[in-house]
Design a protein that fits this description.
241 residues, alpha/beta, globular
Length: 241
């Protein structure tokens, strides 16, 4: 029920960037290996969402859904002073209201956002961004590995704040990072991503661009993305004709 294209358009449109959704948890759209593994889970389909809610017992009465006398409400935690999070949370609030789900936006101090809310799982949904890396397969492991409980009963989630995973995903993450054959590694990574979608771990939204302002006449510098500028001797001012 979340129109990710609309969210991308709201954030990227003013920058002149085409709004394209990101349908992979591991690869960016411009990385080798990127493949759309979202399937039906990535589609914006309010009618299907309504049918699934009906089947789950959340019946619509007026503009609200309830089950056994309890209204369907979810809490969206966002950090204060982050305008993008505020804008997106309000858009999502409106989108979910169309199918009878009430979203309560809880704005918390930015300094407490991760320590007191995201890390301990004190949220129903939340919004933040991951930075793409040049080593997507190894970087993804700590985000999607299944949380483990130690002998003291303490749960280690690493960066898997959704607390969703499976032994099969764990095994494939290790296999992908250890595979030296690039073609095989990319295939394993995409098999992993397909399972992450099936687990409904998280909803990737869109790829944010890197924008760099450079004074006219300065050559070979700008938005490098996942590359490293080299050699630095190639950077410099263009000689006047």
């Amino acid at each position: 029920t979340v129109d990710r294209t609309a969210l991308a358009r709201a954030s990227l449109g003013p920058l002149g960037v085409a709004p394209e959704v990101l349908n992979n948890h591991i690869f960016m759209r411009n990385q080798q290996g990127y493949r759309d593994n979202a399937g039906d889970l990535g589609a914006y389909d309010p009618e299907q969402a309504g049918r699934l809610l009906d089947e789950a017992g959340w019946k619509l009465a007026g503009d609200a859904r309830s089950k056994d006398g309890q209204r369907l409400e979810i809490k969206c935690v966002i950090p204060a002073a982050v305008q993008v999070s505020r804008q997106e949370s309000e858009l999502i609030q409106n989108m979910l209201a169309r199918v009878g789900i009430k979203v309560n936006i809880d704005t918390v101090p930015a300094s407490d956002f991760f320590d007191k809310y995201v890390n301990p799982g004190q949220f129903d949904i939340t919004l933040f961004s991951w930075i793409g890396t040049a080593y997507p397969m190894s970087s993804a492991k700590s985000i999607y590995v299944n949380p483990q409980t130690n002998a003291n009963g303490e749960v280690s989630v690493q960066q898997n704040f959704a607390r969703v995973g499976s032994p099969e995903i764990d095994a494939l993450l290790v296999e992908a990072a250890a595979e030296f054959d690039r073609t095989k590694a990319l295939e394993i990574a995409n098999r992993t991503d397909a399972l992450i979608w099936q687990e409904v771990h998280s909803l990737t939204l869109y790829q944010r661009p890197e924008l760099v302002a450079v004074k006219k006449g300065f050559a070979n510098f700008g938005a490098f993305g996942l590359q490293t500028p080299w050699p630095y001797s190639d950077l410099g001012w263009v000689a006047e004709p």
